[in-house]
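request received
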Amino acid sequence: MEITRVIIENFRSIKQADIVLGHTTVFIGPNNVGKTAILDAVRIALSRRWGRSGTGFLETDIYLPGGITDPKQADPITIHIEFQERTLNEWTADLQNALDDVIQIEPVSGRSFIILKVTCGFNDTGTLEPRWEFLNMDRQALTGKGARSTNLQEFFQYLPVFYLKPSRDADEEFSARSQFWGRLLKAMNVPEALQATLRTSLDNLNKQLLTADPRLDTVATDLKNIAKVAPAETPGDLTLRAVALQPWDMLQKTEVIYKSHQDQPWLPLTSHGHGVQSLAVIFLFNAYVKLLLAEAYRPDSTAILELEEPETHLHPQATRSLCSTILNISGQKLLTTHSPYFVQRVPFRDLRLLRMTKTGTTISWLPPNYSTTIPASPALSQLLQQHADLLTHDASTSTLTTKGVIPEDLYRRLLTAYANHAEVKKIVANLKALKEQAEHHIADDELAQLETWARRIRGEIFFARKWLIVEGQSDYLIMHTIGALMGYPLDEHGISVIDAQNNGNPGTFAALARALAIPWIAMFDGDSAGQSYVAQIKKRNFEAKVIAEQCIVIPATDLEELLVTNGLEQELRTILKRLGVQNPQTIPTPDVISELRANKIEYATELATDLQADPTLFAKTPAILKETITRLQAVQA
Amino acid sequence: MTTHYEQAIQELTVNQRQAVYWQDGAALVLAGPGSGKTRVLTTRIARIIQESPKQTFRILALTFTNKAADEMNNRVATLCPDCEDRLSIGTFHAFCTNLLRQHGSHIGVQTTFTIYSLEDDRRQVLRDVLKHDPDNKPVGHDENQILKIIDGLMSRFATPNSTPTLFRDQAQGARYAKLYEQYNKELRRLNALDFNSLLYQTHQLVTTYPAVAARYRRTYRYWLIDEFQDTNTAQYRIIRELAGNDFNNVFVVADDDQIIYEWNGASYQQLLRFREEFNPTFIQLPTNYRCPPSIVNAANNLVSHNSTRTPQKAPLLAGRTTTQLPESQHIRVLTYDTDNDEAVGIATTIHQAGRETWGSTIVMARTRALLENLLQQLKERDVPALIAQRRDHFLTPHFQWLQAVLHQFTRPLDKRNFRVVVDAYNQMNGAVYTTDDLIREAEQTSVDYLGVWATHLTESTEVVHRTTGEYITGLRRHPDNHSAFSDYFVQQFKKTTVEEGYDDLAEDCSAWTELKKNISHTIDPNAGLDQFLQQLDLRSKEPSPPKGSVRLMTIHAAKGTEAEYVYVIGMAEDNIPSFQSIKKGNESREMEEERRNCFVAITRTKEQLTLSTAKQYRGWQKKPSRFIKEMGLSIPA
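response:
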């Protein structure tokens, strides 16, 4: 059983967030944007502690809308956690029987789901009071057996939540009292017969150690005087013990030693670097889930692992390889990360981008499909048959789902199908909203292509605040310089410059930016290739206004022609000379352009240096490039 | 030490053991009176649970009365403690209530529905419906007849479309069709269901959404049905629908010689259908461990005159080997001249039998009328006696108030209930609160009715009102504390009883205390107020008879009870068998049901059965009941 959706309202920085969760979900976004809030919301909701004081929620957890400073005046926190079978009987019969009182059925497909709602606000007496309840499909609280408080205890047994904070200290996590290590050691069995043999060996070992130096015996004899000073009724005795009395005790004190290289010495984990320690804790969790979860909870329990910043203290290579390890840990995973290296290996649809807006934290992602509420009708059934690969409809929940963009003619036919329906207004509004949402769809094959082409940049671009989509490497270098000279250094402002030519299709990047609500500007050459890039973006159903404002086409075949014919010819001839080109001052202008084309990266690097060194040169650079930076500064999602 | 469970297993007879250890597949247990069927059912439930300790499937047991469900729950709890989570033991109505609370939303039934268990509530619904459409009133029928016909339609699962075809008079059929629809609509508007619509909606749910039935089959792996002979068509169809085509772990216990609810739709037909559709294996429990052998013999003789019985059914065997009285005293037949002589004679006999026998004496008659006179005669002789009868309401305004005020918390907008709250309160405390004023004030201030009233109470100069106001305010804040709330008021009422010697109030006090105890055995102690009220509404508000009193009851009410000394009075033609059944003829269904009534009556006896008849009832000459002869007994002149 896994969490399929979380809806959080009025919690910390989150006014409202509706988050679809997968087997693995990776939250990324700037500091303080609400990533940890999501993890905490899930953990608090799923780990009510009975009989303990404190609710898990604090007064400061309540979201304060503008103008309100007293949390008592604000709306209560609500957290809905939904669990839905993805396929019929995905959940075992044992689990379903045990949780029968709170399980709801999606009646046509027969799939099970559970909705847990946690509310926390101030009660009449001014104290913070949390409340847990299970809901039905209409989000009405269950009554009768479904409202018993004992249901929660059993429910939580199936969903233990484990939280690994960013600083994972081996000292703490490998102590006998730690959540995983201590419990693992306690659970180990040493057969009775073996214990007896081991005890004898321990005694022998002890004897050998203590007889190694005769002076120890003297110490023991002296200590025996205790009995004389503080005599008891029966005579006591005293001896020395260098090793544990019981094999059991030894096992409890087991520690992990590691050598990072065969020529290195064995050292305890705590003597290693933080990266190794952090890794060790993650693997320890994995072992715990494999060995003890079913025993400590229920055979069908799903561990929910909340792991913050798995990359902590790790080398980029290690981060990359850790990613696949983590994806393979059993259980449902909720991760946060700040590492492009980590994100490089995360499937696109598992990413959730968080950003802060005026209305609090907002979340974007790339959903595989989109749904709306539309009642069943015979006309719809017909359309469904004709477009079975695109549309599906669930009659009991009246949910229409599309797996991709809805073509205009199909949209028209859908509208026609409901023209005479009593609730036509609502249906049209829903269909329109569905169509608009679905226009943001990025298909699986397109994502697969990105996976191949954009592997190098795909980690970093998701952390960018804005995107500048350009054609090639020279644009990349020059635009960075111009930005810096205009007081808008691209790196400092979190701008990713994407050279689309080397990474796939500009249309895809524009669509990706839209879906993820990343503001973007594209700048292309004036040649036919550049025009075709604009056409590719147009094809993604952008409004004409967006194309006009965000797609810039330079008034020349390419950047080289633009630079040469718009004021920088002389400087570029000088650069060519430095680059060792023959007769750079005398060759005709077209040859200058072709030479530049042949040495793109080299000239661009030189030009960048020159521009920085000589402010008068900047005045001569083509206006369109400056315009591009200005638009980039202004563009909003 | 042997556990209760092991002991119960050891005490089983061979036949009982066969039933308890019946594995998968349908079984029909033909259990005569006193054959230990409750023991078989409870031990079987315990056996299945004990043999599957690690599993989570559940067991469903259906009974016909709350009393039987309570007893079964208590007995199973002794045999296997801490297994409540795997059991659902309750009446058909309780089962349907749970099902609809959990899954009813799919057919528009809200989780918070109220059950109208009182005819008063139903009459009000009918009146409101007819008020809006007075022309549609069925011709020639009063309210009670109309409700009865609506019940009939509901239990046939009639739809508004199929309704007219069920009437000979087309116009009347059309009126009923409309009325039936409106009545159901009004119930839905009120978010309420009555007993028959509980069954109707359950059937609707499981037929519309077979996935719901499929889930029940999986979670509830074994079903047990007590008193199956009393199942009516609607109940049978629900079981059939829930079981679908493949499920047949249905274990029913029945005695076709004890069908005495034909007027409620119970019929031998259900047994026939069950045999046909489930093809059960027969298990016979013919041995009667309750009655002395001569009574077993008389019962066998009597029932052999019936023809609609399961052909395979074995005659009763006497299993009771030791009795206190000699055989000659096990059956007495007494004859009197008039009904009055009979009452005097029986009263005298009971009186003379001595105080120590009264608590183990029951007197039965076919109808209540004969019991009234006897009660009078017993009272004149200072023999404590009462007529046991279901009580829908509490007797005093105090408890009517308590029940209503608790209801108001779960249904804050129920005006009708609020009227009861205020009226009952005025009556018990001599207060003069006006419901209409309170409602008006509430609607102006948008505080709920109870809230407005609580404010008035708290501002009163009288302590009693202030205290009531404070308690109501307190419960509004913490609705889970309803138990403490009612405890306080019951404590106050008990004081009133002592101070004022108020008999009815004393009866209500003990009824409340008993009800609360029984309910807490049936439902989770942490269960919410709504669950408690649901149980409270359904149960009789009649306290257990004081120790040492003679219980007088109709044969129908005597079902499931037993006593050392049993009197069946009025054993005359036109009485038992009834006038109507004689009119239908000796071979009629009605006559057979009368015979079964007599069979049920005599088999309640543990020591001594006294049958009495008079030559004259209400001035009319009557012959002794034919059943006396059919039992093989002679009638003294």
